[in-house]
Write a structure and sequence with these properties.
The chain has about 170 residues and is α+β, with helices and mostly antiparallel strands. The protein has a single domain, classed as BirA Bifunctional Protein, domain 2 (2-Layer Sandwich). The chain contains 3 helices and 9 strands. Strands 1, 2, 3, 4 and 5 form a 5-stranded mixed sheet that branches. It has a two-stranded antiparallel sheet with strand order 6-7. It has a two-stranded antiparallel ribbon with strand order 8-9. Helix 1 packs across helix 3. It is globular. The two termini are about 30 Å apart. Keywords: Acyltransferase, Transferase. InterPro entries: aa-tRNA-synth_II/BPL/LPL (IPR045864), BPL_LPL_catalytic (IPR004143), Octanoyltransferase (IPR000544). This is lipoyl(octanoyl) transferase. Pfam families: LplA-B_cat (PF21948).
Length: about 170
């Protein structure tokens, strides 16, 4: 799962929470279409992004003084088994989906990261989706993205982490 929690001053965009929700959904719809040729849409009366009757992205925001918090969660390679035992988001007669499940072609192979956690195809899928999310987010919100790699020494693994900042274009 990829989670995107942008912190944006809506005074620099539109001071409209429905617009912001729909814009976040648009980011995911564009990612699925442009990167994976998956036709996704909104479902009347529901928040999130859907492929058929499967919800692939949840959107939830918090806004204080027009500064946004929280954002979206996109199911990339999420184990969906636990969703069989609950009614996710209180929505009956709908399922939860993932990009991996929709593509059907990303099968486990050799490992990456910590042993047994992710497989190389999962890592590729997450990386591809992450890059596309950043690209589509910058286009929808008309922002220029600057990448900065910062080491995170407090973690056991010393893999540098990426940080993003943006400015209005």
């Amino acid at each position: 799962m990829l989670v995107m929690y942008p912190i944006i001053n809506l005074r620099n965009h539109k001071m409209d929470l429905h617009w912001y929700l729909r814009a976040l959904e648009e980011v995911v719809i564009r990612v699925l279409s442009s990167t994976f040729s998956i036709k996704a849409s909104r479902l009347e009366g529901f928040t999130g992004v859907w492929v058929g009757d499967k919800k692939v992205a949840a959107v939830g925001i918090r806004v204080s003084q027009w500064i946004t918090y929280h954002g979206l969660a996109l199911n990339v390679n999420t184990d969906l088994t636990p969703f069989h035992s609950i009614v996710p988001c209180g929505i009956r007669n709908r399922q939860v989906g993932s990009i991996k499940g929709l593509l059907g072609e990303f099968q486990p192979s050799t490992g990456c990261g910590k042993a047994g956690v992710l497989h190389s195809n999962d890592c590729q899928l997450i990386d591809i989706t992450h890059s596309s999310l950043i690209k589509e987010f910058s286009e929808v919100f008309q922002l220029e993205i600057f990448h900065k790699t910062i080491p995170m020494p407090e973690f056991e693994d010393t893999t540098p982490r990426r940080s993003f900042t943006w400015k209005l274009t």
